[in-house]
């Protein structure tokens, strides 16, 4: 079964993006509780590249498919899960990377939509928070995707966000999206 091509965010309104995100049906991985079966021998690198047995997975459709059965466990580990098996997968940072941004509106009426390297589209808001964590390497921005899974906001996308935020009025450097304010200055 071929996967649909990814839509071009630049040609869509945020209403179209929200409709596409709502139409996407993901498997109910949170309801599946098979016995643990071992290690998938897969790894998701910090840059979002998926590997199997040390080699990059070159087929984008395979990565997109695997991303739909990814789940974060209560202990923070990640697994690929189906109704009959559960396999460990190593995740170096976040399992997804936000690679594209679409912004509409200004100030409190702004909406921010992100395309992930998996093809998923996520609109920042109350259910999809945007946070910045200070690390030894500097600030790292993350977007909540689903069920404890996050996307690392890619560097170029983070720069776009900061450029938008610097043009906003306010006491803190940050942006509104879908009625929620997200500080981008890394301060708690």
UniProtKB/TrEMBL annotation:
<dbReference type="InterPro" id="IPR048342">
    <property type="entry name" value="DUF1285_C"/>
</dbReference>
<feature type="domain" description="DUF1285">
    <location>
        <begin position="95"/>
        <end position="184"/>
    </location>
</feature>
<feature type="domain" description="DUF1285">
    <location>
        <begin position="27"/>
        <end position="94"/>
    </location>
</feature>
<dbReference type="InterPro" id="IPR023361">
    <property type="entry name" value="DUF1285_beta_roll_sf"/>
</dbReference>
<dbReference type="Pfam" id="PF21028">
    <property type="entry name" value="DUF1285_C"/>
</dbReference>
<dbReference type="InterPro" id="IPR010707">
    <property type="entry name" value="DUF1285"/>
</dbReference>
<dbReference type="InterPro" id="IPR048341">
    <property type="entry name" value="DUF1285_N"/>
</dbReference>
<dbReference type="Pfam" id="PF06938">
    <property type="entry name" value="DUF1285_N"/>
</dbReference>
<protein>
    <submittedName>
        <fullName>DUF1285 domain-containing protein</fullName>
    </submittedName>
</protein>
